[in-house]
Design brief:
six-stranded mixed β-sheet, single chain, about 30% helix, FAD/NAD(P)-binding domain, binds flavin-adenine dinucleotide, 3 domains, D-Amino Acid Oxidase, Chain A, domain 2, seven-stranded mixed β-sheet, alpha/beta, about 25% strand
Amino acid sequence: MIKKSYDIVIVGGGPAGLNAAINSADKDVKVAVFEKDREIGIPVRCAEATSEEALKKYAFIDENSICTPYNKFEFVAPNKTSVEMDAESMRGFVLDRKIFEQSLARKAAQKGVEIFTRAHVLGIENDNHPLVKVLYNGEQLQVNCQLVIAADGIESRSALDFGIDTTLSLKDSEPCYQMTLVNMDIPGDTLQFLFSSEFAPGGYLWIFPKSNNMANVGLGLNGSLKKQASPRELLERFVEANFPQATMVNSTAGGVASAKNLNELVKDNFMVIGDAGRMTNGLTGGGISTALASGKFAGKKAREAILEGDTSVKKLKEFEKYWNKNIGKDYRRFYHLKEAMFKVKDEDFNNLAAKFENVPPEKVTVTKLFTTLLKRKPSLILDVTKVFAGL
Ligand SMILES: Cc1cc2nc3c(=O)[nH]c(=O)nc-3n(C[C@H](O)[C@H](O)[C@H](O)COP(=O)(O)OP(=O)(O)OC[C@H]3O[C@@H](n4cnc5c(N)ncnc54)[C@H](O)[C@@H]3O)c2cc1C
């Protein structure tokens, strides 16, 4: 049963919320996670790829959740010329996110975290201490706590309750559609990114293998462009034209925030993390690694704040400063690159692919690709080298 009070209430049981729970709870810090869906880890609205380094640094590698490891990227231009890149230094895994999140939940439970599914947070009042209103088993409950961590994803409303503006402009939101397809014949170690104004205007298509036979195939569009067709229609057309033999076993629609990280991540008794804090990579839409990273840093700081009896904005700012210094600044650079990429035309991608198609994969780097593509924008070259240095 949900108790009347906890030290920390976490809204949302995705990777950010669960990792914050793991890193904040112990016998002296009582933590509850409220998740509105009926089961942790579903529905999966994700292509499920993330880097090995991020998992090791911010969480752990759960072998059972790995569908396939990848260590190569392939970029496909609109005219289908492709460029292969050896991505050993950026290697990672395509996960089974349901299994992964459930293993995060088990770890949190082992640390004493109380996790409630079908627990929908309706709103939070913050008068000295937060009072969380939650709908659980058809009953509206009120739960007291010292600190709320909002990890309620792209649709977050919790931050608004604390006066943090999370409004997304159309140009910073990407409606996506994805199918999981079987009967594919694809390299199991390669993430493929395809650029095409016909199928993914202002965004890109992805083919992320779950094995040699199965893949997450999806696309994201820029929300500000006039729609010729819905993301679903565009993906159906793409799949029909390119994988007529494939069978769909799952499909999902979802949104990605390709926005700048929020400037303000804390208030008195409040922190916001993961997609709710707009911590996605504006360029790729990837957010698993930052959800885990922000969960880890926020969780540790929250625990410290509870033990010191100080959940003031001044104390919690330590998290905000740490985030901005270590990760937020690179993510602002990704955002600038995304804005520049928006102006790149099919012809530019075709020219770029022509330049690199015969370059051996081990000589292709993301820095070289971006500096060539954006050479008319010297102001961005520094951003490119800072975020991709050494990759
Ligand atoms: C189509 C698509 C493909 C993607 N592919 C990738 C990829 O390959 N790699 C990658 O790194 N990222 C990818 N992303 C982004 C990635 O899924 C997110 O960045 C990541 O899930 C963020 O984690 P989170 O914990 O912040 O939020 P979420 O995973 O969204 O979790 C938030 C949780 O909060 C719950 N919640 C919301 N409101 C309430 C409420 N009021 N009360 C209780 N619970 C609530 C939700 O039910 C949800 O479970 C993709 C996104 C989409 C849409």
